[in-house]
Amino acid sequence: MPQIRWLWKPLVFLACLLPALHLTAGALNAVGLAHIGGVALGADPVKVMLHTCGRWTLNFVMITLCMTPLRDLTHWVGWLRFRRMLGLFAFFYVLLHLSVYLLLDQSGKLGALWQDIVKRPYITIGMLGLLLLIPLAVTSTNKAQRRLGRRWTRLHRLVYLIAILGVWHFWWQVKKDIREPLLYVCGLTLLLGYRLWKNRQTLARVSVARLAGTGAP
Amino acid sequence: MRKKSTDSAKILPSDITPYGRYLSRRTLLGGGLGLAVTQSIGGFGRTAFAQPAGALTYVRNAALSVSDAPNSYSDISTYNNYYEFGTDKSDPSENAQKFHTRPWNVTIGGEAEVTGNFSVEDILKPHPLEERIYRLRCVEAWSMVVPWVGFPLGDLLKRFKPTSKAKFVEFKTLYDPKQMPGQHTSVLEWPYVEGLRMDEAMHPLTLMAVGLYGKVLPNQNGAPLRLIVPWKYGFKGIKAIVSIKFTERAPRTTWAGAASNEYGFFANVNPDVDHPQWSQATERHIGSSAFGPRKPTLPFNGYAAQVASLYSGMDLRKFF
Q1: Tally of structural domains, chain A
Q2: Preceding omega of B152 cis (within 30 degrees of 0)
Q3: Which of A138, B45, B85, B235 could form a disulfide with B95 if both were Cys (CB 3.0 to 4.6 A apart)?
Q4: Nearest CB to A176: which of B74, B79, B258?
Q5: Which CATH code of 3.50.50.60, 1.10.275.10, 3.90.420.10, 3.40.228.10 fits the domain covering B65-311?
Q6: C-beta of residue B82 within 8 angstroms of C-beta of residue B219
Q7: Residues A178-187: pLDDT tens digits?
Q8: Is the ipTM of this complex over 0.95?
């Protein structure tokens, strides 16, 4: 299906960039380098940038996790062809999230970042999630996929753990209003629950098949 | 969501008057006459905007003001923590526009000789207003500089002749979920409760604020009556006050009740005592320097010389 490669993928790619472009425009407005209408990051632009990048990291992890269920539901395998790009966008936004934190919020002080990682559990957890995303991003090429074979699939199951760490990080850092992180918890529960359910179905089918195979002498 | 674009698009004199000029004009007037000048903010904007609605008459209290440049009216009135109107910083300015601040009554109760129900007009009447430019440090590690208009809380409290049993003062915000949509949620316990020790309440820096930038306080900033305690974290500054009660024991305050390991009764600004989730050693100053480096947070928010003695002998790590 060439239209996936030449039409849908570029379109999705541009759409995925929109939040970053919006923040860039807002940041330029905030420092007075641009006057782009309709884009304002408010009184505390650093916080908006930080939180927006964090949210989009989680969004992209969740969207990536939606591709397999969507394939199963719609019986269209094309969904899986977007998975790598979406996963890499999660990585892109988490790098932006860390950069905003380190460079804009903490003025580039690595010592302050280290203090936070050691002292504040929600940052420890977030940082762990980010680090675990690195091997996934590095092995996202076709070549790495071929070379690693079955180990690739096993390695990339880390995304389930990463998703849990990400949502946990969000939950722990809100002050009191947990309604938004709760939405992510619900979404993630559905996505992971679906996989557990599917696994059990497959296992059941396999054991039925085995029984059927070995049942009659 | 109700969004009144006409209101938010209105250009305010304080938005167009550069702060340097705003301040220098005041210095000029004050210095030239050599005495405190009673003035309204209308005179400082361009003539087309002279005397906006809600202009207040007040005297500037330079002795109790900081010299830092104040944040813009728009920053101060659109970046608010006021959970009664929503938990996003922009929610209060969007949801509080139709809030009714008249008629308004304040109940005075507890350990005092004079108690009862008073109209806000009765509460305000005897008090000359003054402008004080104070630092504001939020517990979330951001800060602003705000030109409040108000009067010393102590002057108000004295009118009710608190008895010797009055050791604390408890304040309550209005409870009216019809007007305050955030009160439909259980994010916090409603109504919001705050409190001060009597000596803190009587301290000359403690302010009952009714105005901002020379005009009547915007609803999202706590109209018609809010507390300002500049050496404490912002959440002590309870808004839309309907009840003041003199008590013998420390009141159970909202945030301390919600998470006692995170928020204390005293809530004095203290760079040495971190919130469990973030450091209080530095703060990000809202406004022009938003992308600049964080500023070091000062003990008692820079008011240590005036207030540290209130806490002498106390372990501020324990009583945070």
Answers
A1: 1
A2: no
A3: B85
A4: B258
A5: 3.90.420.10
A6: no
A7: 899 999 999 9
A8: no
